[in-house]
Amino acid sequence: MRRALEEIRIEHLTKSFDGFVAVNDVSLTIKPGELYSFLGPSGCGKTTLLRMIAGFETPLTGRILLGNQDITQLPPYKRQVNTIFQNYSLFPHMTVYENVAFALRIRKLPNPEIDARVREMLQLVKMEDQAAKYPNTISGGQKQRVAIARALINKPKVLLLDEPLAALDLKLRQHMLIELMNIHDAVGITFIYVTHDQSEAMSISDRVAVMNQGNIIQSGPPDDIYERPASIFSAYFIGDTNLIPAEVTSIEEDYVDLKCQAGGQDSFEIDSTFNIKPEVGQKLTVSLRPEKIAVSRTKPTELDDINVIKGVIEDILYLGTHTQYIVKVGNLKFRVFDQHKRVYFDEAALDWEEPVWLFWHDTDSWLIDEVTPAGLDVGEINVFERPIQMSRGGKRIPRSE
Amino acid sequence: MNNSRHRNTFSQLEIRQVKKRNLQSWFLSMPSLIWLTAFFAVPYLIVIIYSLLVSDIYEVKFLFTLGAYREILSGAYFKPFFLSFRLALITTLFCIILGYPVAYLIARSSEKWKNILLVLIIIPFWTNFIIRIFSWRIFLSTNGMLNEALLSMGLINQPLEIIRTDWAVIIVMVYVYLPYMILPLYSVIEKLDFTLLDAAMDLGASERKAFFKVTLPLSREGIFAGSILVFIPALGAYIIPQLMGNQNSLYIGQIITYKIKNIPRNWPVASALSLIMLIIIAVILLTGFSIYQKRKFRRMDEAR
Question: Are B84 and B251 in contact (CB under 8 A)?
Fold first, then answer.
C-alpha cells in the first residue's frame, strides 16, 4: 500500500463565516507520512481547517498544495484525501461491506477487485466477520473501524480524522488510539488528526499544532510543546501548569533573577535559565509544571540551581497515581503533583494547613514573554474557559486525626 | 415447588387485574369501534349486498346473483380502469418529481423559513376545493389567461386546447395532490443526516451520484408514504376528471357515478366496481407494505 508520499503545504489560509474569522492566515507544512494534529478548544478553527483540506469549505484566501498540485478549488470528490467523520457518517442503508465498497463502486471497478480490496480493508481493521451487518447494529468502536476501512480503501494520500474518538468511552478510546497508530504504521500515509483532547494529541502525534481563535499558537513535537511552551495559551491548554506573574530583577551569567508578586506586600524570588532573552525590569510569566515541583516539610539541603519557597497546604486531592496538593504561597496557589515514591521522601503524609517547602530546578521555571491577564489567580481563575482538571476524579482522603 | 408450573398459574388477584385491564381497553376503544361499525363496516356490508343483487330501473330486485361481477370481468370496464390507473400513476410520478425538490428545499432551509414555506404549502387548503378547480378551468380555457399570455408573448399562434383533455386532468390532479407528497417527503428529508452527503462526496461521489446513492435511498420511506397518499385518492378521482376532462375518456369514478345517477340505475354494477377497486387498492397496499417490511426484517436478520 505504500507509495510516493507527498507533503501538504498550507499557505496563508483564511476563512470566515458571516464576519467571524474561523481560520486566520494559517500557514504550515505537513511532512509526508506524518501524523499531525490540530489541537485546540472548540471554535478554535481546527475543524474548519480540516474541512478546507477535505474540500468541504473553500478558503477566502490562501491555498492548499498536495505535493505540487494546488487542490484549493477542487471539489472533495476529486481530492486524494479521505475523511473519518466525528460521528462516522456510515451509510445506514448499506451493510458494512457496502459501506467499505462505496468508493470503489463509485469508480465502477470490476466486482472481483472490489471484493478483494474490501476483504483486505476489513481484515486490516479486524471486521471481516461483521461484513453483512448494518451500521445501526454494531458498536461504536466497530463503527469507527468501518469508517477507517471505508476511508482508506481509496488509497488516499492523506487521511483526515475529525475528532474520531470523541464518541467512544475512555477505555475504548485508549484502545482505538493504539489501533490508529498501528494503522498509521501499516498504511504509512499522512494522517491529519483534529482533537480538543490534549492527551490524545500528545500520545498519537508526530507533531501538534496548538490552535486558538483561528491562529496556530505553536507547533512542534508534543514533548516540545509541553516542555517548551511559547505562550501562556500553549502552557495552559497542554497539560496542567502554574502560571506565575514575574518581573526580571537581574540577569546573571547563566540564570535570571525574578521577583514574583504573591499578592499584597508578599513577594518571593526565583531563578530560571534563559529560554528567552529578557531585559531587566521586563514583566513576564513563568510557567511551572505541577509535576516538576517537589513538596516536603523539610527544607532541601542541596540549594545549587534550586528554587525553594515556603507555602501552606490548602487542599489535598488523592488521585491514585499521584496526589495533588494546592499550596498557598501568599495569595498565589500552586498546584503540585507528588507521586507516591517512598524511595525519595520517606515521610509521613502531609496534612491540611501544614507549612511545607516547594522546590524545583531552575530550568523548570519556564519563561513566557507574555503578561498574565490582570488579576489572574493562577490556582482558581479559568482564563481560557477550560475546566481546571484538579477536580477530575479526585477524592479527598479523610483528614487524619 | 416446580418453578415453571408456578409461573404458568395465575393467582386470583392477577386474573382479576388482567380482566380489569381487558375491560378497560374495551371500554376506551368503544367510541371508535362504534364509529367504525356504523360508518365503515355497515355501509360496506350494504355495498357488498347490493353488488350481488339484480338491477331494476330505479331500484334493485332482491335476487342474489353474480351478474354484476360477470359483467365487469367480461372486460366491459377495462378502459376506465386502465385510464384511472394511468392517471394515478402519472399523477404520483409528477408529484414525486415536482415535490421532491420542494421538500428538499424546505428541509434544508433555516428554522424560520421552514415554517413560512410549510404554511405556504398548506395555504391552498384554506380555499374551497371546487373553487380552486374552477379557477384552473378559467386559467386553462381557450380564451384563458395562460393562452392569452402565451399568445401575447408570441410563443404560440393559436390558443392551446388544454381544457377538456387528459392533460388538463393531470395538471389539476398534480396541483391538488402535490402537498400530500411534499409533506411526508419533507418529514423524512428533514431527519436526514446531511453529513452523509459529505461522506459520499469525500469518497469520490459527485453531487449527483451522492444524491442517487445516499439521499434518494434514504428518503424512500417518504416517497412510499407520499405515493400512497397520492395514488389511492387519485385512483378514485371523480370531481377533477368530471370538471377538467372530456366524455371520451371516462375514469372509474365517473363510471361509478353514472351507474347510479343515470336511468336505468345500476346499483349492483356500481357496487361491484367500488368493491373491485377496493380489493385492487388493498392488494397494492399490502404487497407494497410486505415488500417494505421484508426488506426491513431481512436487514435485521442479516445483522444478527
Answer: yes
